[in-house]
Amino acid sequence: MDFKIYLDMVKDFAPNLVMAIIILLGFIFAGRILKKIISKKITSDNPVIMNLIGQTVKTLFFLFGLVTALGTLGIDVSAMVAGLGLTGFAISFALKDTLSNFISGVLVLIYKPFNINDSIEIDKYKGVVIDVNLRYTVINQEGDEVLVPNSFIFSKPLIIKK
């Protein structure tokens, strides 16, 4: 007798489960397609930025698909979304310096105030730019590699020697 009750519950729940899986897979597929379009099809001077934007869009599509799929299953997602907002705020506050360097790195890559092999001076650091990534700008200062945080580049005067 109990087995019939469980079988009826599975029959009632199965269509919602199948629909939730289809929704989640659709969002994952759409996110991957958009990432490929953004990363490879859109021409840009800076493929690193386009790849970063593509990965961000893909991740957002996955998260939106997950929340939509859970809502389709009948789970109240409003508390979850509010919790994600509070968690995001707490994480961003805890990682303030890291996020500042990351955002500054994106801005350095977009605006390109200097290029590789340019001679620059930032506060007490001066040398030739070896590499620019999302967190640091690497300069060669008298044979030593100095990792200058990108947020430092936006907060201090920058001299580009021509």
What can you tell me about this protein's structure?
The structure is a single chain. It contains five helices and five strands; from the N terminus they run ααααββββαβ. It has 162 residues and is an alpha+beta fold. The protein folds into two domains: 2-94, Helix Hairpins (Orthogonal Bundle), CATH 1.10.287; 114-161, SH3 type barrels, CATH 2.30.30.60. The chain has a five-stranded antiparallel sheet. The mean pLDDT is 86.
Features:
65% helix, 162 residues, elongated, alpha+beta, 5 strands, Helix Hairpins, SH3 type barrels
Using only C-alpha atoms, the radius of gyration works out to: 24 Å
Number of strands: 5
- Placed side by side, the strands forming the largest sheet appear as 4-3-2-1-5
Gross CATH architecture of the largest domain: Orthogonal Bundle
- Helix content estimate: 55-70%
**H-E string:** HHHHEEEEHE
| Overall outline | elongated
Number of domains: 2
* Class by alpha and beta content: alpha+beta
- Can you give the mean pLDDT? 86
CATH topology heading of the largest domain: Helix Hairpins
Low-confidence stretches: none
